Amino acid sequence: MLHIKNLHAGIEGKGILKGINLEVNAGEVHAIMGPNGSGKSTLSAVIAGKDEYEVTDGEIFLNGKNIEDLSAEERAHEGVFLSFQYPVEIPGVSVTNFVKTAINETRKAKGEADMPASEMLKKIREKAELLEIDRKFLSRSLNQGFSGGEKKRNEIFQMAMLEPKLAILDETDSGLDIDALRIVANGVNKLRSKDNAVIVITHYQRLLDHIIPDFVHVIHDGKIVKSGTKELALELEEKGYDWIKQEATI
């Protein structure tokens, strides 16, 4: 589904990614870990097409299609979803209206008519129930006055509604208490299928106790320096990152 080949990218002339190679197949969950400043969030931003990042070499394919020249909006229409580490507040725009607009814009890009109101309402109810969201929450302005847990749960609700092919969760666990973490993780697990893929970017093993990854990759200094299964995340929890850094410099 996602094929990244020799990706080099940076921001304001500073190189951050220095040759990333990654393949993610449909039905898989990949966890990306690494010390601060290693390039994890940059990788997520570059895949999603954030304007401020510049790709200087390499290719990104989604389902066989080179998406490097597509805007962030066009990539979203192709099925890329990015859950932010720090979701922004949008006063005056309700959660429901935001999601309706996002869904109908994607349908429009595919030449489809707007989703009928009855179908949209049914879907909103189903996904809100799935994620244990009070429907009063959906009439509030997007993220305004939300707690950290509410913001992250709202991101997963958007993911549930949009049904992306590739979901990238950028440190979705940061700032969550145990209950909020469980609800968010359960939501992600319920949305997993053989037709979609998930990339989870995290510092901590605790999220991976709930969302079990098929593969774990460690980024250091802009490169994937080690890959393994979920046991690698447990090893990192126990030992930290110093041994990875030492291996990478040998």
Structure description:
With 250 residues, the chain is α/β, with parallel strands linked by helices. It has one domain: P-loop containing nucleotide triphosphate hydrolases (Rossmann fold, 3-Layer(aba) Sandwich), CATH 3.40.50.300. The chain has nine helices and twelve strands. The protein has a six-stranded mixed beta sheet with strand order 6-9-10-3-11-12, sandwiched between helices. Strands 2-1-4-5 form a four-stranded antiparallel beta sheet. A hairpin with a 2-residue loop joins strand 11 and strand 12. Helix 2 packs across helix 3. The chain is globular. The model has no long low-confidence stretch (mean pLDDT 89). Keywords: ATP-binding, Nucleotide-binding. InterPro entries: AAA+_ATPase, ABC_transporter-like_ATP-bd, FeS-cluster_ATPase_SufC, P-loop_NTPase. Belongs to the ABC transporter superfamily. Ycf16 family. This is Putative ATP-dependent transporter SufC.
In short:
Keywords: ATP-binding, Nucleotide-binding. InterPro entries: AAA+_ATPase (IPR003593), ABC_transporter-like_ATP-bd (IPR003439), FeS-cluster_ATPase_SufC (IPR010230), P-loop_NTPase (IPR027417). This protein has 250 residues and is α/β, with parallel strands linked by helices.
